[in-house]
Amino acid sequence: MEKVKPIKALFIDIGGVLLTDGWGHKFRELDASVFNLNLAEITERHKMTFETYELGKLTLEEYLNLIVFYKKRTFTQAEFQKFIFEQSKSYPKMIELIRKLKEKYLLKIVVVSNEGRELNEYRIHKFKLDEFVDSFISSCYVHLRKPDADIFRIALDICQVPAKNIVYIENNPMFVQIAESMGINIILHTDLKSTRSKLASFGLEV
Fold first, then answer.
1. Are strands 185-188 and 9-12 parallel, antiparallel or unpaired?
2. How many structural domains are present in the chain?
3. What angle in degrees, to the nearest 10, is found between the helix axes of 39-54 and 25-34?
4. What domain range is 72 assigned to?
5. Which of 21, 56, 159, 203 has the fewest beta carbons under 10 Å from its own?
6. CA 192, CA 69: separation in Å to the nearest integer?
7. Which residues share a beta bridge with 163?
């Protein structure tokens, strides 16, 4: 029987794993309904600008000026931003699991995520992710975004742990495939129970 490799670090996505998505389609649908916006119109403008925002090349204000505030509205940008931020919720049991694993096995915890700066920083501080995450390899900081494999190379360089000693927890099948092709152990996250079981197969149990 093959011996389980000692895991020394976890790479983790934020949206869909530790927290809800930051600014997904369902939230744009909700925003369009609440603020009486043309969903098709803002979706089309979003497609043309969101990657640039996530890469840290547009501020949130600049991004929203392009997709929402390109015409006069009955609400302010501050009100709209507040509503966006309020949609983020945590998955407390997943966060607790990662905290306990870090404490028990002295793991390095590295977030690898696609998020714009303002939303990323709000979520980090609101949900106290910086209390247990060692490094944030966020698209807005490194100006690369998944599926670009270079974002994983940067994470590996910063973490200084061999790929074979890392487990990556991610809910996007394509991103998991890319990490696996680089020799990183992977867990395709669907729910807490299955991820806990898969972590145990790598020798990580609490």
1. unpaired
2. 2
3. 130
4. 25-86
5. 203
6. 39
7. none
CATH number of residue 72's parent domain: 1.10.150.240
**Nearest alpha-carbon partner for 55 in 148, 154, 124, 180:** 148
Residue 160, Cα to own-chain centre: how many angstroms?
A: 21
Q: Is 180 found in the same domain as 163?
A: yes
> pLDDT 10s digit of each residue in the chain, 206 long?
455 679 999 999 999 999 999 888 888 899 999 999 999 999 999 999 999 999 999 999 999 999 999 999 999 999 999 999 999 999 999 999 999 999 999 999 999 999 999 999 999 999 999 999 999 999 999 999 999 999 999 999 999 999 999 999 999 999 999 999 999 999 999 999 999 999 999 999 99
Instruction: Render the burial of 54-75: b for 16+ CB within 10 Å, e for the rest.
Output: bbbebebeebbebbbbeeeeee
Asked, for residue 4, whether it belongs to a domain, the answer is no
28 contacts: CB under 8 Å, gap ≥ 6? 39, 42, 43, 46
pTM of the model: 0.92
Query: What is residue 59's three-state secondary structure?
Result: coil
Partners of 137 in beta bridges:
112
H or E element at residue 34: helix 25-34
DSSP 4: P
Give the whole-angstrom CA distance, residue 160 versus residue 98.
Answer: 20
Which region, left, alpha or beta, applies to residue 74 given φ > 0 means left and ψ of -120 to 50 means alpha?
Answer: alpha
